[in-house]
Amino acid sequence: MKNKHFYGPHSIQIISILVGSLLGDAHGEKRGNARYSFKQGGRNLEYLLWNWKIFSQAGYCTSNKPKLTKTIGKDNKIYFNLKFNTFTFPSLNFIFDNFYNLKIKNVPDDSFLDTFLTPLALATWIMDDGSKEIKAGLLIHTNSFSYSDVSRLCKFLETKYKFNPKPRLKNKLKDQWIIYIPKHNMPLLASIISPFLSPDMFRKLSDS
Cβ of 56: how many Cβ atoms within 10 Å? Predict the structure, then answer.
């Protein structure tokens, strides 16, 4: 029996969380139909379970709670992770097709972002990939995207949400860029995303 969402329609909540997650660390794959994979570790374990619960209760993934897995890093430190995958849906291929080109994840065009980078998607993206900046403000770790994509994201956030984000070089040798949202934008950012944050994620909003 097909999942009730196999051919859609999908709620804006589900699409927003998918879009925000894909701007972050989530990944998509398509073998005919698309599915999406979520993985978090460290302090983001509770966030992943919050995410899984939404997808599970809506019928987009298994009801079996993700199990903790252990990996050993290059520094011989032990890391704990949780992960889950959605079921496959032909009706969610359009999200994959907007994010991926030859299996490489890119930032979708502005028309797609204007429709689907909702406040919930923005909150999900920051929960997934955001961190407090030491000198106040917020960093969004867009390392895997090109400078042109990161620069375009900054311009989009400025236009749609009235922030003043700037690309920041993280690793010159690897040409990795992240987004910096300055301290004076934090009250505005908090007003937009606070209604959608999981309880443990308020720590990502600068309080200084």
Answer: 18
